[in-house]
Amino acid sequence: MNLSMFIIGSVVFIVAFSFFKVTALQKTKNQNESWLKLISVFFVDLIVLMVGTLGVGIFFVSLFNMFHG
């Protein structure tokens, strides 16, 4: 059960972050960006996704264990 709660927490974070990125891309759609800037944004987003997925997954499992003993 802990694994499924971890996966649910991870999916929730990935979906929320994806909606945030889609909105941000729509606002900056017409601006020309350099490849260096785009690559740096990609790596920052990748780190945020990894840390956020682990963090929210652990948070969901902790809440589940706290309320279900």
Essential attributes:
elongated, 69 residues, mainly alpha, 0% strand
Mean pLDDT: 86
**Low-pLDDT residue spans:** none
Ends distance: 12 Å
H/E element order: HH
Counting DSSP H or I runs of 4 or more residues, the number of helices is 2
Overall geometry:
elongated
Query: Helicity range of the residues?
Result: over 70%
The profile of the biggest β sheet is: none
| Count of extended strands | 0
Structural class, by secondary structure, is: mainly alpha
Query: How much strand content do the residues show?
Result: under 5%
Gyration radius, in Å: 16 Å
Overview of the molecule:
The protein is mainly α. The protein has two helices and no strands.
In short:
The protein is built from two helices and no strands.
SSE layout and pairings?
Layout: H1 2-27, H2 35-68
Helix pairs in contact: 1-2
